[in-house]
# Entry
Amino acid sequence: MRVGVMASGRGSNFQALIDAAERGEIPDADLAHLIVNKKDAYAIKRAKKHRINYTVITSHDRTRGEFDQSVLKLLKELNIEIVVLAGFMRILTPEFIDTYRNRILNIHPSLLPSFPGANAHRDAIKYGVKVSGCTAHLVDEGIDSGPIIMQTSVTLSDGETEESLADKILKYEHQILPKALQLLCSGKIVINGRHIKIKSD
Ligand code: GAR
# Structure
C-alpha cells in the first residue's frame, strides 16, 4: 500500500515508521511521501535523511477547505492509498475523511475516549488519572473519536509532569503506530461500526 504520512512538527512517530520499515516490520506499507503543514517541521529533516519525498503545504495561509483540497489533490496524484496522521495537529474536513474513509490512521497520546484533542497529557494530569496511554485509531469526522485499533497503557507516578508523561507514552506510540499500520495495510482489520477485529493469520 502506498502510504502518505502527515506531520506538523518533530516527527518522532514518522521516524518510528521509517525505522520499522527499515527493519522489515511493515512489509505491506510503502512510505511513499511526507506532507507537512509547517515549513520548519523537523519531520522534513527525517524525510531528507531517509530519501523520502516530501511536500510542504502551509496551513496558516489557507482556509481549512483549501488546505484539505490541496492535500487531497497531491495524494491523488501520488496514488496514495493510506494516510497516517503522525503528530498532525489539525482537524480534517468531512470531505477529506470521506475520500479516505477507514484509510486514515491516527496516533493519539491518551487512552481514548478520555482526553481527545491537542492537550492530552495536560488534561490527563489535570484530571488526576492514575493510568493513561496511547491509542492508534481510524479517523472519523469527530475529534479523536474513530474506531480503535490498538491501545497501550502506562501508570502515572507521583509528581508526574506533562513532559515526563509525554516521554513515557511516546515510546509506546512508537511501538503501536507501525503495528497498526501494518495491520491496516495487510487487510487484517475488520471494521464493524465502532468495533475493530484483527484477522488472525
Ligand atoms: C505525539 O505524542 C502524538 O501522539 C501527538 O503529538 C505528538 C507528536 O509527536 N498527537 C496528538 O496529540 C494528536 N491529537 P511527534 O511529532 O514526535 O510524532
Summary: The mean pLDDT is 97.
